[in-house]
Amino acid sequence: MTSVAIADDQPLIRAGLRMVVESQPDLRLVGEGGDGTEAVALARAHRPDVILLDVRMPGVDGIRAIGGILEASASTRVIMLTTFDLDEYVYAALRAGASAFLLKDAGPEQILAAVRQVAAGEMLLAPALTKRLIEEYTTRPLPGSAEALAVLTGRERDVLMAIAQGLSNLEIGVRLHVSEGTVKTHVSRILAKLGLRDRVQAVIAAYESGLVVPGR
How confident is the model over 108-122, as pLDDT tens digits? Predict the structure, then answer.
């Protein structure tokens, strides 16, 4: 059973998300909040597997709340929901530790798929936002360095590059002619060696280190 919390300042949005979550036998809603402060409190009290978090809220907004949520519950995965597909929100949310970023016009099936995928440790971005994120990296100065990846083996670098290109574990296995289980092992080692939380942070590390260059 995957536990889910919701934080959005609009009661109608919260009600809609509540109905979507409660319609599924494998999901359990553990609480709701109307701003970032309440979102952090939910994480501290319930340690949900996934929290659906609005970007724009009064007081502490969603992006500022991410740090508090992860500090209160390191295992919680954050899905950002917004009506605004603006570059700075995507970049800032992912840098802060969000695992997924969806527009609020996403259908119930997309939202449920995101919850399940993120709970399983995967990442998810709406296609339009993926394009914007890549475009952001073509103009933003990269703070990282290739030296940061020196701890990885050649095969681990190959896996990291494939992750950054959006491939699933199964697709990476096909590309590298190894089993999906072997890929999962490589992914776990990559995250541990680089001190990363999840695949989203791995994608960011791959771009910022220059391992993957947009357009090449």
Answer: 998 999 899 889 877
Q: What is the 3-state secondary structure (H, E, C) of the chain?
A: CEEEEEECCCHHHHHHHHHHHHCCCCEEEEEEECCHHHHHHHHHHHCCCEEEEECCCCCCCHHHHHHHHHHHCCCCEEEEEECCCCHHHHHHHHHHCCCEEEECCCCHHHHHHHHHHHHCCCCEECHHHHHHHHHHHHHCCCCCCHHHHCCCCHHHHHHHHHHHCCCCHHHHHHHHCCCHHHHHHHHHHHHHHHCCCCHHHHHHHHHHCCCCCCCC
CA–CA separation, 190 and 203 (whole Å): 11
Alpha-carbon span 103 to 33, nearest angstrom: 19
- Report pLDDT digits (tens) over 155-207: 999 999 898 887 888 899 999 999 999 999 999 999 899 888 778 778 878 87
**What pTM did the predictor assign?**
0.70
